[in-house]
Specification:
Length: 237
């Protein structure tokens, strides 16, 4: 009865009355998607975005194929991110994190030279921050500026020496430069750190193929396909 009353308040737009009842109901009905969904949506309407995201994430866990659950979780995520970034711009407008955020936004908009400039500003302020050299390296790599990418990835590896993705990307750059020995060294290290890293496995197979080691390449590719039959690039190779 209490839940029905809360839903009636919710449907009439009286969220201030609906929320306390739904919060109480949630304590004993955490697996009830009706209670979870309406509490999350009520929080969203009250601009309590952090609380909304927690509830809407739970809704997705309960109903992972619900289009509404996925939509509203995404919406809450956007609001939470926007609020956090707005607070960042006010609290630390000249911080390396603000430069990093601008770089990421510019990159998404395809404004690569401007993004590179902002990443460089962030690095100048905090050269030992984890992830900055990696991010700049990926931009250089995507732009085909391989030597610059390699320099950034190498610096990142000194900061995070056990990062499999950085090892993989160094190996990938060397592979694109046809430096097979160097490529295989870093690719194998990436796989030692993360044995199921499919991208590194594919590059290893490409290196074998270039060397004429067809059987070795096929063996690696079969293991990738066995682990993930949906990998079209592995099937193609």
């Amino acid at each position: 009865t209490q839940v029905l009353l809360a839903l009636a308040y919710f449907d009439s737009g009286d969220f201030n009355r609906a929320v306390p009842i739904l919060e109480k109901a949630y304590q004993s009905r955490k697996d009830d998607p009706v209670v979870v969904a309406h509490l999350g949506l009520a929080y969203l309407r009250q601009n309590q975005d952090d609380k909304a995201l927690v509830m809407l994430t739970r809704w997705v866990e309960l109903e992972p194929r619900s289009a509404d659950a996925l939509y509203f979780k995404g919406k809450a995520s956007v609001y939470v991110a926007s609020n956090s970034f707005d607070q960042l711009s006010k609290a630390a407008p000249d911080s390396y994190r603000m430069f990093q955020l601008r770089a990421e936004m510019l990159r998404q908009q395809g404004m690569i030279p401007a993004a590179i400039s902002e990443y460089k500003k962030a690095i100048a302020q905090k050269p030992d921050a984890t992830g900055l050299h990696y991010a700049l390296g990926t931009v250089y790599r995507e732009a085909g500026r391989l030597d610059e990418a390699l320099s950034e990835f190498t610096t990142e590896l000194k900061i995070s020496p056990n990062d499999a993705m950085t090892d993989y990307l160094i190996g990938d750059v060397y592979l694109q430069q046809n430096k097979l020995d160097d490529a295989q060294q870093y690719l194998q290290q990436a796989l030692r750190l993360q044995s199921g890293l499919a991208e590194a496995q594919l590059d290893v197979a490409k290196a074998y193929r270039i060397q004429g080691k067809t059987e070795e390449a096929v063996s690696v590719l079969k293991s990738v396909v066995a682990a993930d039959p949906s990998r079209e690039d592995a099937h193609y190779l």
